[in-house]
Design goal:
The protein has 279 residues and is α+β, with helices and mostly antiparallel strands. Among the domains are: 40 residues; 153 residues, Glutaredoxin (3-Layer(aba) Sandwich), CATH 3.40.30.10. It contains nine helices and eleven strands. The N terminus is likely disordered. Belongs to the peroxiredoxin family. AhpC/Prx1 subfamily. Pfam families: AhpC-TSA. It catalyses: a hydroperoxide + [thioredoxin]-dithiol = an alcohol + [thioredoxin]-disulfide + H2O. Its EC number is 1.11.1.24. This is thioredoxin-dependent peroxiredoxin.
């Protein structure tokens, strides 16, 4: 190697032939390529690119840019396609409806509002209470042109077994809402609720309007279920603004405040008038 370096220096000093120049050009080209590769692998550049996006991470929280600091093979990482005011991610699959297996898809609910919620697993404690609550009050949703679909990563056979188990034994009993099977976990991943490290979902609830636009997302940790009353209120509020505009709720609130104020004034005036008559 020392002899080679002496030769290279000699060639450079004397400027003899094109061999030395060609070798120098080749060395510089290799160094340039290596520098470009190193720059492409710079983790700071990766973090800067990652900061431009928000990623859903296991646990249900959003870490802007954190995904760039994690290997892409991390099984706890997934991206959500569900975005407020954008079309809801399409889904289709087999569901248990009225005790039978039927194919179900998102487009079956066009022209209606849809409450689409996920629960972790069949045969768990919190899940039956909220699923039964939504099922028992389905007519209240249908009265406002809304349907409800529940989904988990269990198979259709597990869904059916849970439905066929009496409620006193931890089952669901007869259901008035479909239970959709997401055995491939693809639907759960698309909606950003799937926990890779645990193999099931968070308690996510999505309100999709009659034009298939996603209007609301609720994401709960595992121990706590969703409120039927609050879900009904949200659907009614969205439908009200669809019909009357965004300022309608504020105007309605102002009107209620005015009426309550007038009522208080009249009550106070009436009491004062009665006292004056008695005196």
């Amino acid at each position: 190697m020392e002899a080679g370096r002496r030769g290279l220096r000699a060639g450079t000093r004397t400027g003899t032939g094109t061999g030395g120049s060609a070798l120098l050009v080749a060395v510089l080209a290799v160094l340039a390529v290596c520098g470009a590769a190193a720059e492409a692998e710079d983790p700071r550049a990766a973090r800067q690119r990652g900061d431009e996006q928000c990623h859903y991470y296991a646990g249900g929280q959003v870490y802007p840019g954190e995904a760039a600091r994690l290997p892409v093979t991390d099984h706890s990482l997934h991206l959500s396609q569900a975005k407020i005011s954008k079309p809801a991610p399409y889904w289709e699959g087999t569901a248990v409806i009225n005790g039978e297996f039927k194919e179900l898809k998102l487009t079956d609910y066009e022209g209606k509002y849809l409450v689409f919620f996920f629960y972790p697993l069949d045969f768990t404690f919190v899940c039956p209470t909220e699923i039964i609550a939504f099922s028992d009050r389905i007519e209240e949703f249908r009265a406002i042109n809304t349907e409800v679909v529940a989904c988990s990563v269990d198979s259709k056979f597990t869904h059916l077994a849970w439905i066929n188990t009496p409620r006193k034994q931890g089952g669901l009993g007869p259901m008035k809402i479909p239970l959709l099977s997401d055995l491939t976990h693809q639907i759960s991943k698309d909606y950003g609720v799937y926990l890779e490290d645990q193999g099931h979902t968070l308690r996510g609830l999505f309100i999709i309007d009659d034009k298939r636009i996603l209007r609301q997302i609720t994401m709960n940790d595992l121990p706590v279920g969703r409120s039927v009353d609050e879900t009904l209120r949200l659907v009614q509020a969205f439908q009200y603004t669809d019909k009357h505009g965004e300022g309608a709720l504020l105007n309605s609130f102002k009107l209620k405040i005015l009426l309550l104020t007038l009522k208080a004034v009249f009550v106070a005036f009436g009491r004062k008038l009665l006292r004056s008559i008695r005196d």
